[in-house]
Structures are given as C-alpha cells and as structure tokens.
Amino acid sequence: MTEISEFRAETPAAVERFILHWGDMGGQWGVNRSVAQIHALLYLSDRPLPAEEIALRLGIARSNVSNSLKELLGWRLIERVPLPGDRRDHFQAESDIWEIVTRISQVRKEREIDPAAQVLRRCLAEAEDDPRINPVALKRLRAMMEFIENVDRWYAQMIRLPKSQAFTLLKMGGRIVDVLTPGKRKKGSKRG
C-alpha cells in the first residue's frame, strides 16, 4: 500500500483530477472506467509506461490493467513500445487529439451506428411491404433512416478531410450558424 501512495504522491493534483474525470466520462460513454483512466494516464505521460507501473500509479489490479491495455490496443489508442534493455512491454498513448477522436469515432461507428443502421434498413423494408403498418410508424422509420444516412454521409466527408481543414471548420464554429441563419444572432454575442 505504501508503494501506491508514493506513486500517487508524485502525481500532480491536476493530472490526478484529469485521470479521474476521464474515467468518469468513459463510464458515461459506456467505456470501462479503468480503461479510460489508463488512457488518460498514458496520454499525459511524458514516457512509455510498463503495465506494473500503471497498476501501481492508478491502484488498479494488474489483471485489470492487462485487460484494459488489450482494449486500448484494439481501439488503436495506445501502442506497445520496446525499450532497450527492458524486456517488459511499455505502452504509450496516441498524442494527436485529432487521431484520438478519429479512432474513437471510427470504432464507435463500426460497433454501434453501422449495426443500428442495418437493423433500421431491414425494419423499414419490412414495414414498407406490410400493409398492417401504421402510416405514422412508416413515416417515422423513413425519417430516422434519412437522418442516419445523412449522418453517415457527413461522417464519411469529415473523416476524409485533412486535419488542417477539419480544424479550420471547427474553428469557424458559430460563424457557420450565422451564415445558415442570418439575422438570428443576438446583439452582443460573439461566435467563433
């Protein structure tokens, strides 16, 4: 127990707060808290860390760390890094925030959105061939399918954009809304 508290004592309060918050956010997004905390620790680390040190610094069981590292490797959010003279695996996180967001969104789309869209397509096809379907239900299924298809097209366009153009688009922020809704901007508000 002394080792864990020594490692935690070395961790600045802001880093510990970020790791804890990232773990909480992970839980809200359906990601295991330990997985998210390990990702946060590695993201903020200035050097690759071995699993044993991750377990000690976070106070997480070594087996949990091992399983969490496998999951993070599967998401391609971390990588194994060999260090000369050390036979242990060391891990470091992807540090480019755009790459992190892109990889997370790709995995989530593949795991959640694509299967949901497939089921929705089947439901809509069945509904269109079934005379017993309420017209309101059919209309709503079509609207949902249209929305999913639009989101899918938008995602495909955004993922192909070079990072610099994507960041430019993000920085434009509210100015895009102003172009789309002229005259709706409140006096004194700044967007950008």
Supply database-style keywords.
about 190 residues; mainly alpha; 3 strands; about 70% helix; disordered N terminus
Write down the overall mean pLDDT: 89
CATH superfamily of the largest domain: Winged helix-like DNA-binding domain superfamily/Winged helix DNA-binding domain
- The strands making up the biggest β-sheet line up spatially as 1-3-2
What is the distance, rounded to the nearest whole angstrom, between the alpha carbons of the first and last residues? 49 Å
Q: What's the tally of helices?
A: 9
Query: Helicity level, as a percent range?
Result: 55-70%
* CATH-defined architecture of the largest domain: Orthogonal Bundle
Q: Tell me, what's the shape?
A: extended
Q: Oligomeric state of the chains?
A: single chain
Sum this structure up briefly.
By secondary structure, the chain is mainly alpha-helical.
How would you describe this protein?
The protein is mainly alpha-helical and 192 residues long. The protein has 2 domains: 2-93, Arc Repressor Mutant, subunit A (Orthogonal Bundle); 97-160. It is built from 9 helices and 3 strands.
